[in-house]
Design brief:
Elements: H1 2-15, E1 39-43, E2 48-52, E3 61-68, E4 84-89, E5 95-103, E6 110-112, E7 120-122, E8 131-139, E9 150-154, E10 159-165
Organism: Nocardia seriolae
Protein name: Secreted protein
Length: about 170
C-alpha cells in the first residue's frame, strides 16, 4: 500500500509540473561516417562542412585523426600535423567527438597558395592566375632544395610541397 502511494505521489508531481532536466541534444555531426583518410569540406565563415569525394575541388581537408570523447577526454587535442579541428558537441558544449584534418594536397591538384597558412583548392581547368599545381610532396623534408621550381615549406607538418604555375 505504501509503495502505491509513493508511485502515485511521484506520478502526481510530474503531472503538476515538476520537471527533470532534459537530455542534452547534439548538434548535427557534419562528418558523420567519415573515416580516417576520407575527405571533407569546411567553410569557416558559415561553420558548415561535409564529407566529400577526395578528388573533388571541395575536398580541402583529409581526416587524419578521430576521437570519440567522454567526460574524461574533453581536453583531447589534435596532433601536430592537423591544420583543422572540428568538435561535434551538444547544445551545452559537451564534446562528443573530435575530428582532426590536414590539407588534402595531392600531386596534380591545384591550389591558391597566396597565403600558405590558408590555402584553397582550385579547379585546375578554371585558369585562375593564383592557381599552382602540386608537382611533388616530400614528407620529412622542410627545405626548398628538392624542388626544381618553387617550394612551399610546412615545418609544422614536416613536409615540403613542390609547385609550378598551372
Amino acid at each position: 500500500m505504501r509503495l502505491s502511494r509513493i508511485i502515485g505521489a511521484v506520478a502526481g508531481a510530474v503531472v503538476v509540473g515538476l520537471s527533470v532536466p532534459a537530455v542534452s541534444e547534439a548538434y548535427p555531426n557534419l562528418y558523420e561516417g567519415l573515416e580516417i583518410g576520407g575527405c571533407g569540406s569546411y567553410d569557416a565563415v558559415g561553420k558548415v562542412g561535409a564529407p566529400v569525394a577526395c578528388d573533388s575541388v571541395a575536398a580541402q581537408y583529409r581526416l587524419i585523426e578521430q576521437y570519440q570523447l567522454t567526460a574524461d577526454t574533453q581536453d583531447q587535442r589534435c596532433g601536430p600535423h592537423a591544420t583543422l579541428s572540428y568538435h561535434h558537441r551538444t547544445d551545452e558544449g559537451f564534446r562528443l567527438a573530435l575530428y582532426c584534418f590536414t590539407y588534402n594536397m595531392t600531386i596534380g591538384s591545384c591550389w591558391d597558395l597566396t597565403n600558405v597558412n590558408d590555402p584553397h583548392r582550385l579547379d585546375c581547368a578554371a585558369g585562375s592566375p593564383a592557381s599552382e599545381r602540386i608537382t611533388d610532396m616530400i614528407d620529412g623534408v622542410t627545405t626548398e632544395n628538392p624542388c626544381p621550381k618553387k617550394a612551399i615549406v610546412y615545418p609544422r607538418l614536416d613536409m615540403t610541397v613542390c609547385v609550378a604555375p598551372n
